[in-house]
Every structure is written in structure tokens, then in C-alpha cells.
Request: fold
Amino acid sequence: MTIRKIPHPGWNLEYLMWLFMRISGLAFFLLAITGMIVALVQGARSYMGLGTLMRWTFFPNPFHVQAEVPDVDLGWRSGFWQAIEISILFFGGTHGLNGLRYVLEDYFTRPVFQFLSRSLIFILWVFLLVVAVFVVMGS
Amino acid sequence: MALSRKVGFFEGLKYKGGGPMLAWILHRISGLGMVFFIGLHIIASHFSLDAGSDWAIALNTLYMSVYFQLFIYFCVLYHGLNGLRIIILDLWPKMLEYQKEVTWLQWLIFVPTYGLTIFLMIQQLLAGE
Reply:
């Protein structure tokens, strides 16, 4: 029976993921605030509903705002936003799937299960990031 | 030093963890909610962009509805605020003495922020925007 270990500083998975969870958590705030401020500077307040602004803040993809923006190409679709989207996806996907690993390993503690769930989560992680990058580059 | 986890579901419900336990369980639920629904949304977006699949377009239409956004906004805001509390308490462990007060402060920030947002979103829905 292996229980999820308390992270001790060093080059081990638990500590590095502990650190990553904190750093990526702070990064989400930074990325979200960037998206929201630029949207407001571009005049979102005059033609966008609050729900749309929140969707854009969460993930600055042109599909999230195209229903309420007259011309998405004027500042709502660019390489800058794609770079921000991809960094949100990398941080978010890793943060989320590592969180899923925490929850699973808290309840299922047999080594066999741990190996299987880690392999599945790793495959899911790669698959989701690849699909997400396709979506971002195609939108 | 493994903790014994041989506790039944109903026995677990009787455990009086109070505010911090509620924060812990809501953090898990909101986190898993985001992983599941946003993961599904990414895959559905891929299928609706590249193949125009009916189920993907239907799923993304559902995601655009106000009711779903109220749910996902709860997940995002609660998980974000609670995560910020965890980061701050990890950086300054001395503040752990005020764990209860900080948890209340977190609700004090969460309730008006979430309440005002859903109020405005429902108002805009009823106004037909």
C-alpha cells in the first residue's frame, strides 16, 4: 500500500508538481488579468455582455467573442493571443491532470492501480494538449 | 505512516470538518468539474472545427447557455480564490494560525463577486441580449 507522499524539496515528482501547482496557479491570474485588461482597453464594455467578457478572460479565443464583436480580426485574433492561449493550455492541462492524479491516488492506493492511472493520465495529457494546439491554430 | 482509510461513506459524512473541510471538498469538486467539462469542450471544438460533427456543435451550444456558464464560473472563481488562499498560506505558514478567519475572508470575497456576476448575467439574459 502506497499513500501519496508529503513532498520534500529535491528533484522528485511530488515536490516538482507541488511547486508547479503554485506557480501555474499564479500564472493563471496573470494571464486572465492580461486578457481582461486588453479586452476592456479595446472597448469591450460598449458592445460585449458580461458573460462574453468572462469567457474571453478565461480563455482569449476569437470563437468565445465572435457573436458580439463586429470584426474579430481587429485585435481579437492574433499571434499574441495564440501564444497566451497555448501557455494557458499548457499550464491548465498540466495543472488539471496533475490534480486528477492527486484525487485518484488519494482513493486508490495499490501500486498496480497507480501505474495504470499514471500511464492513462500521461496519455490523456499528451492527447489533450495536441488536440488543443490544433484547435488554437485553426481558430 | 499510512493513515487508515477504512472509513465508510456515511461515517465520513458525520465528520465535522467545518469550513476548511468544505473548502477542501469544493476545491476538489470544482477542479474535477473543470478538468472534465473543459477537456470535453476542447475535444468537441476540435470535432466541430475539423469535421462539423453534430454532437460537437450541440455540446458547444450547450456550453454557450447561461446556466452552464453559471456552473463553470462557480468552479473557476471558487477554485481560483481557494487556490490563492492555499498559495498565500504556503508562502507565509505563520498565517495558518488564522486559517478559520482566512476561510471566512475568502467567502466574504467570493459571495459578492459571484453574486454580482450572476445577477448581471441573468439580468442580461432576461433583457434578451
Notes: The domain at 13-138 of chain A is CATH 1.20.1300 (3 helical TM bundles of succinate and fumarate reductases). Chain A touches chain B at residues 1, 3, 22, 25-26, 28-29, 49-51, 54-55, 58, 63, 92, 96-97, 99-100, 103, 107, 109, 124, 128, 131-132, 134-135, 138-139 (CB under 8 Å). Chain A has a mean pLDDT of 90. The longest helix of chain A spans residues 13-41.
